Amino acid sequence: MASMKTALFVFLHWVLQCAVCRNVSVPPGTLYRVAGFPLSLPCAVSGFEGPRTQDFEWFLYRDDAGGRQMGVVSTRDKGFPYAPFQPRVKNGEVRVERDSGDKVRLVIQRLRAEDQGKYECYTPSTDSTYQGNYSASVPVKVIPDTLQVSYTRSLTGQPVPEGAELTLTCSGGIQSEQLTRLSITFGKRNNGEGLGAEGGGEVSNIREIISIDKLLGVVPGRMYKKRYGDGEITLEKRNKEGGLGEYVMKMRAVQPDDTGSYFCESTQWIRDPDRSWQKIAQRTLDIGNLTVQQLAESLSITSSPRGEVTLQVGAPLILTCEVLGLPAEVNSGLLVQWMRSVSSDGARSGGVEMEVARMSPDGVVSWGDNLSRASGGSMEKVAGGRYTLKLFSGQPLDSGVYRCVVSVYAGRANPDPSTPVTLTQRSEGVTVNLKSKDVLVAAVAQLLRGPLLKRGNTITLICNITVTTTGPAQAQVQWLRWPIPPRVIKREESPASAVTVPDPPVEEGPSLVAALMYDGVAKIYVNTSDVSIDRLSTGSYRLRVHSATMDDQGMYACHAQAWGQDPHGGWYNTGARAESNAVTVYMYSRAEDLLLIPLVVGVSSALFVGILIISTVTCCFMKRLAKQRTPK
């Protein structure tokens, strides 16, 4: 029993010692790396005693040297390297890079075929007792370089117009006995213009545009994800003879920001025994420089006739818009708009700008501020980059400053609604004046006199309109009603006396009751009343409210607009208008309504008195009866 306890104690003591003993680790398995490219071997030590910064020494057991040990590099002894490695260590091709006090990496900048063998990482002891492992080794196989990359056509450096399509082709392949993968990346350098890196600290002038990674997935660059998602940038792989792949990148419409030096980069990858992917070879091929000529440097918009145009009412108005400077080799979509601006005071410049008509990139014409113009005008594309706006019969309201506004979708003949506009430019303004005949309008409203208006009667209002002009004219009439402002009384108490001060009336907006258009069409705008409107004679218009209610009382006024006739027989709004005086309509109560009040009051009072008498008599009788039944 005692011997078993002793053995158990010795075993636990050994386990505890090993738990804190030194351990040196390197990547597992055999590593395959390509000749002519860097080799990086990490090595770490743990469970040691002594200083936090440990020394490391690297040995190589070459396959062609019969397993003889060769010193490669040491962190503590400059004379440690053997003769084959001394010049390479001296010029920095072979070195040790320290990640931390207990982690380093052996770096061979350009791997050679004779560098194949087993690499051992050794850590000199700083422990009080010698325990654990002080070295670890990993075999490295050097495979030949078979990575290929080429391009079909280089960029010439000639300026390319904004919106043009860019196609770059790059071929690449590998021929290796090992299972390796190839990735292809297209990118550009910004000709010395630095860009903030993702980390935020470093500055780089290289942008990765798009790539096919080692897992055959298409990956857009960080700054090109949106354009890739919109289909603006694509990358396609095509198989070629000899095991090569052809990779074609297309940019649907280049932008000024695409200016730069383009390159194609091929990378060979291998999966190490620890299941991690390692880059073992890489080649970059410059394709050439691209300069994008901005559309703003060449585009110009002109409109004609220029300056100021004066026409008689009814005359046709024809305006032409011409788009100049569009590159012929770029198929761009154009949104062409005609805008008209008139200030609120009638001035021909400044003020609010309204859309008259537009033609979308697919040729669809729509009308803006005046939909009735769709039948009295046209907008056409008469030639490449040349558009006309025609108003068959000009009206006074067509006066203003006209401008042609062109929005260009460079390289996108049929853009989606969400596609951003490349550039928008405007032409100089064309001032259009349409002379109309002098028109004077006057309006007077009156209420037909008769018995007092009572609930249920018909309200009859007359609007007499006078239009003074030469030539045919018609009046368009609107009837409006305002509520009668109530008289609000407010008492202000003071030590001397009470003063009654009326509040100012609260102004409410008018409500449109009915209208009679210039062509005789009547429009009723109220639903609560039975309303009719008609024309009694030339210049005399009547409004009737049948079976009027208390809600129909108020202040009525008529508004008149003068319409003239152009030489083609069409009617137009001359812009002349007038507002009549206000007529107050008050509804009185009917006789039966007045008699109903005392009748209701009298019946209610009689019922109350009767109930009170009956209650009093009944109460007294019951009390007397109770006294008679009480025993004496």
UniProtKB/TrEMBL annotation:
Ig-like domain: residues covered: 36-137, 144-286, 297-424, 442-584
Topology in the lipid bilayer: Single-pass membrane protein
Entry keyword Transmembrane: yes
Keyword terms: Disulfide bond, Immunoglobulin domain, Membrane, Repeat, Signal, Transmembrane, Transmembrane helix
Transmembrane segments: 595-622
SMART domains: IG (SM00409), IGc2 (SM00408), IGv (SM00406)
Localization: Membrane
InterPro entries: Ig-like_dom, Ig-like_dom_sf, Ig-like_fold, Ig_sub, Ig_sub2, Ig_V-set, IgSF_V-set/TM_domain
Coiled-coil ranges from the UniProt annotation: none
The protein's name: Ig-like domain-containing protein
GO cellular component: membrane
The keyword Membrane belongs to this UniProt entry's keyword annotation: yes
Span of the signal peptide: 1-21
Source taxon at top rank: Eukaryota
